[in-house]
User: Fold Homeodomain-only protein from Xyrichtys novacula.
Amino acid sequence: MECMNLSEDQLKVLEENFKVGRFPDGTSLMLIAAECGLSEEETRKWFSLRNAQWRQAEGLPAGRGKVYD
Assistant:
């Protein structure tokens, strides 16, 4: 996510955690943020943007929700 101006190390940690779970709980989010040196809000925003990017790549609607026929 180039719009957030993150280092390669931060992106690596975020992407590794994204592979583990696309929607981290509060405790996980706090730990990921601390490891990256980001605020919880910045980390939450990254996951939100990354989820929208993933959904678009999968041909799904960008918003979180159910997929209907």
